[in-house]
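Session log. Operator J.P. requested a structure for one protein chain; no other inputs attached. Running the standard single-chain path with C-alpha cell output.
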Amino acid sequence: MRLLPAILLSVSVLIAAMIVVSIPLFFPTTSAGGGGSVDNQARIDIELLHGDMTALNDTVNELRDQVDSLEDRVNQIEVAAQPQALDGSNGLQIITPDGDNGISGNYAQVVLVAARRGLNSGLKVPTSSFMVGQFGLPAENLNDDCQPITNPRLATLLEERQVGPIQAKMLKPALDSLQVIFDKIQRADPDLYARINTAGTICARWIRGSTTSVSSHSFGTAIDLNIDGVLDTLGDGRTQLGLTIMSDFFNADGWVWGAAYGREDSMHFEVSEDKIKEWVAAGLL
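Structure written below.
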C-alpha cells in the first residue's frame, strides 16, 4: 500500500506551507529610517499571530489523529485483502501450529487492532502528573530500574494474592476489581480464562528516557497480561486475539487498554482516572 506515505506527505506539505506563510509575521521588514525597530502594526500582527499559532497547533494535533486513524484503516484494508480464513473471520487469516482453526485455538494468535485510537471511549487514561498529584511519588530515588513501592499510603494498600487464573500484587481495590473482571470472563469464555497469563504488575521507575514522568506500573494499578505466556509485540498495531476479547470486560469495569496508546501496548491494562477518583471518593484509596 502506498496510501499512507502519500497522506503523510500531504500533511507535511500543508504544515510547511502554514509555517512559511507565518514567518513574515514573526520577522517583519523594517521601514526606512526606523533604526531596525518593529512598528506598531507589526507588533499587533505578532500578538495576533500567537492566537493563530495556537489554533495551528490544535489543527496539527487533529491532523495527527486523522493520520493515525488512516493508518489503522490502511492496515485493515491490507488485512482484508488477504485470502479468507478457514474460520470465516472476515478476511483475517489466522494460522495455528496445531491446525486448529476454531476461535478457542487461536486466542494467542496475532490480529489487527481495528480503529485502536477510538478504544477506551468515555474513559480517561491516568497521566503521570495525575497519579503523582493523587499519591505522591511511589518510591524515593527513582531511576530506570524497577523498585518496590515505598510510598506509605500506597504500601499499606498493597496485597499479593491469587486473582482468577493468575497471582498478582496490586492495590487492594484494583485486585478486587480484577477479580470481578476475571469472574465475568470465566463465565463467558472458560477456555479463554484458562489461558490468561501475566507478565507482571509493579515496577516503580521513571518512564524510559525521562526523569520527570513516572511509569504507570509504579502505583499498583496496572498489569500486563498475555495468552499462554506469549508476550505481545509492542508498537506494531496488532495484538493477541484473546486480549481483544478481554478488553471489553476491562473497559466495562473502568479499566483502560494500552492498545489505544500512541505506541500500541496491548498487553497493558490499567485502572482509569475516573475509577481512581471513584475509589478515592469512597475512601478506598
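Operator note: Residues 116 and 260 are 5 Å apart (CA to CA).
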